[in-house]
Amino acid sequence: MNVSLRKPSGTGANTTAALAVLAGAQFTVMLATSIVNVALPRIRAGVALSDSGTTWAVNAYGLAFGALLLAGGRAADVLGRRRILLGGLTVFALSSLAAGLATSPAVLIAARAVQGLAAAAIAPAALALVVEVSPPGPARGRALGVWGAVSGAGAAAGVLLGGVITQAWGWPWIFHIVAAGTLLVLVAAAVHVPRVPAVRGGRFDLAGTVTVTLSLTALVWGLTTARSAGWTDTRVVGALALFAVLLAVFALAERRHPDPLLPSRLFAGGQVAAGNILMALLGSVWIALFFFLPLYQQQVLGSGPLVTGVGQLPLAAANMLGSALAARVARRIGAAATVTTALLTEAGGLVWLSRIDAHGSYLADVLGPSVLIGLGLGSAFVQLTALSVKDVAGGDAGLAGGLVNTTRQVGGAVGLAVLATLAGSVTAHAAPHRAHLEALTAGYRAAFAASAAVLALTALLAAIVTRRGARCGRERPAPAKEPSTPAQQTAPSAPRP
User: What one-character-per-residue DSSP string does 380-407 give?
Assistant: First the structure.
């Protein structure tokens, strides 16, 4: 039995506090994605990680996060979003503490995997609650703007805090600080996030959940392994083949289940599908950016962890500004023009970044492109997130949140694997003919140039699908509204951004 969506009653101050807490939860999830990057050399020495172990200290988090997001979104809809959010935050805090206390590679990697599992519960539940507590119109646009700001800022802040904390107190404290911050968010969520009923019923799609989780696990594992082992490695080929088989099994299971994990109604209007495709392309560039940029600063420019982290501040600030302005700009020039312009702005920054020099400097080679990239990234993320959850029924909001996070994570895994292979190939080809730093820089330039090309293609696709979606939306008759609660009946109506 489906339960109609009900807006929690309360004052504007209560809603603001709830949105702030939910933004804090998303910030924590994104922070953990990148906070280990700068600290990897110290972590490797601290727990005696091998080359493959060092890679999995990063990949274990992303693998569990990306593979379990759909299951997390479905669980949030069935069991209650607040309950899943609080449970996820609790597990996230404990696993972060365990990672900081780890003295062996196995414990560290296992703790990172559990962190990813918890993040897969937190992210879709929090996004669904953001949509639920903010009314349609400008207020929801502003809420998603804040969501976008903290998402991008969290990734950039991870690099900054990772460098500062590692240099000041040592690598275990990057996990202890995350654990302490998560506990604060947990307490605030228990106080400020309203209690709302579970909004979906029906039978749990166990077969669909297991097959899609295993298929995404195989895909992400295969792609991350390809970065070090190569695309022709037997394990990589086998993992990608297993992904294809399990995906086919998932499709068959969905057709036969009375209440499938990914119901066809979710994609009926075309906007959800379009938003997720575009988000996957954006994610393929986003994750890679925060991988290659710190490497260039440290390996080529010779910056230490602290200086590298501080160097991410302009990008984070620009990202927050772009996210904050996204809804306002969309009301002036339209959502289609806004997302296209944002993607082209980010592409321009990456073209500029593709001109980095082996003997360059932060001011000449990194600062300007970082500002352009941040502005475009923040605005594009907000608009594509809004597109991916627009007009989704209340009972599917958690699933839609899990889906858009899944496409970004999986897109990021694909993009990073491909771009890392490209950068490595260019560097290897240049190594016999150039100095070491010049060969490294050539690989990074190739990765940034390819990223710019992907975003230019994404901008073209966005211009087509968003305008077509808007036209179809005007032609379709308005859907019947669900019965409103008294709180909804007294809320002022507002046009959608």
Answer: HHHHHHHHHHTT--GGGHHHHHHHHHHH
**Torsional sign, CA 389, 394, 399, 402:** positive
In angstroms, what CA-CA distances link 196 with 27, 129, 149, 271? Answer: 23, 9, 26, 27
CB neighbour list of residue 27: distance below 8 Å, 6 or more residues apart: 150, 151, 153, 154, 157
Complete DSSP assignment for 87-110: HHHHHHHHHHHHHHH--SHHHHHH
**Spatial distance between the Cα atoms of 299 and 297, rounded to a whole number of angstroms:** 6
Segment 373-414, tens digit of pLDDT: 999 998 998 888 888 877 777 667 777 877 887 888 888 878
The total number of residues written for the chain in this structure: 497
Q: Where would I find the H helices in 35-50?
A: 40-47
Torsion angle in degrees (nearest 10) through CA of 411, 417, 422, 426: 140
**Cβ neighbours of residue 246 closer than 8 Å, sequence gap 6 or more:** 211, 212, 214, 215, 218
Please name the residue that has the structure tokens 């009314």: 135
What is the Cα gyration radius of the chain?
Answer: 22
Distance CA 253, CA 49 (A): 40
What's at 196, amino acid-wise?
Answer: V
> How many angstroms separate the CA atoms of 65 and 213, rounded?
10
Transcribe 465-495 into DSSP letters: HHHHHHHHHHHSPPPPPPPPPHHHHTSPP--
Q: What is the pTM of this model?
A: 0.76
pLDDT in tens, 371-383: 999 999 989 988 8
Give the Cα separation of 298 and 304 in Å (integer): 6
**If we measure between CA atoms, which residue out of 136, 159, 192 comes closest to residue 24?**
192
Question: So what's the architecture of 12-194+261-474 in CATH?
Answer: Up-down Bundle (1.20)
DSSP assignment letter at 262? S
The number of beta carbons lying within 10 Å of the beta carbon of residue 363 is 8
- Dmax (CA) for the chain in angstroms is 73
